[in-house]
Input
Amino acid sequence: MTETIAWADFEKVDIRVGTIIEARPFEGARKPAIQLVIDFGAELGTRKCSAQLTVHYTPEALVGRQVAAVVNFPPRQIGKFMSQVLTLGFPDESGGVVLIAPDKSVPNGGKLF
Output
């Protein structure tokens, strides 16, 4: 476990739900990855992300799926691609990413609390 944080520290991390509207293989990436375009609703609009999700997911299976992502990290340049959010998941037994998402549909842009 990492160090204990204050509630104010948790509130600094802006975790929102969004729906994947586009997904395609990240050609030329050093590690297998998928480029995502995620709709976070009217307030945030769409954001792009590169995610190493290829163990359990195909691009086709991701479109239309809701995901949780950190939306207030600074953008990160990955090759020629600018990743704007961090899509969240947990590692499986071998380290493959398993996405986290709400178990019922919720409005895009909703903030985790």
Observations:
- The longest strand covers residues 15-25.
- The two ends are 20 Å apart (CA to CA).
- Residues 30 and 79 are 9 Å apart (CA to CA).
- Strands lie at 15-25, 34-39, 46-51, 66-70, 76-78, 81-83, 86-87, 89-91, 97-99.
